[in-house]
Structure of ABC transporter ATP-binding protein:
Amino acid sequence: MQNVAVKAEPAAANRSAGNSVVETEQLSLTFQTADGPVYALSNVNLTIEQGEFVSFIGPSGCGKTTLMRVIADLEQPTQGRITVNGVTPRDARLNRAYGYVFQAPALYPWRQVDRNVTLPLEIMGLSKDEQAQRAAQYLELVNLKGFEKKFPWQLSGGMQQRVSIARALSFEPDLLLMDEPFGALDEITRDHLNEQLLRLWEKTQKTVVFVTHSIPEAVFLSSKIVVMSPRPGRIIDVIDCNLPPDRTLDARETPEFLEIAHRVREGLRAGHSYDD
Ligand SMILES: Nc1ncnc2c1ncn2[C@@H]1O[C@H](COP(=O)(O)OP(=O)(O)OP(=O)(O)O)[C@@H](O)[C@H]1O
């Protein structure tokens, strides 16, 4: 495995206190199906430190979602080991270590926006006051103040996805798992949400794991990009890309940005030739 470290501003240097949030060692996962085994992940070694924004990028079907689901204890590895916050994914899940944002917003249409956000808090048994305070706090954080009493179907797709981000943040996990959250949105909305997500990450200091197909999205958002090969998913490259923290979308025109994007593209190409 080739590791490429792109030197840029040490903007996120203060983020990592050297605490691993996710650690995998020789992690493999094979699905047994009626048509035979599907080798989804192969010998994945990965460390995600506290406060990092880590994107998984790779071709369709390479195992990005599967790796995310292993972190979330929604799939079990067939080989190797993984810890989340130093414990098993199961214990991390029981400790409510992470919030999960899916490709689609997955909101309940019959619940108003604030009551979608408070749903996990109801399940946790928080008081009504605490629920209301958190809903207000996190809806404001995703710029949805004033929309608390709307129903999801009264909001745009981008706003719905921001509600689901507020919901994932509402029980205050340190780790946010986001599986192509903006994949279904038009490019302008996606650009806007990318900027908002970056500001949110800077404000909250959460650790974010983010699945995407988009090279510009990965480079714009991430402090680290994990490039994966076609199935079985292996890590081809891990690229550090700490662009300046206060960047706007204009950063996509800078030489530093284009250099990192080029390295990601090269990694993706290298992954393909491996299988030829
Ligand atoms: N429950 C399952 N049973 C059998 N095969 C599965 C299962 N889940 C995923 N797979 C297979 O594992 C491989 C990896 O799937 P995964 O969804 O992780 O890929 P991905 O990189 O996230 O793809 P995409 O970018 O298209 O969302 C695929 O070949 C998929 O068909």
Summary: The domain at 4-97+178-274 is CATH 3.40.50.300 (Rossmann fold). The radius of gyration is 19 Å. The first helix runs from residue 64 to 71. The first strand starts at residue 4 and ends at 5.
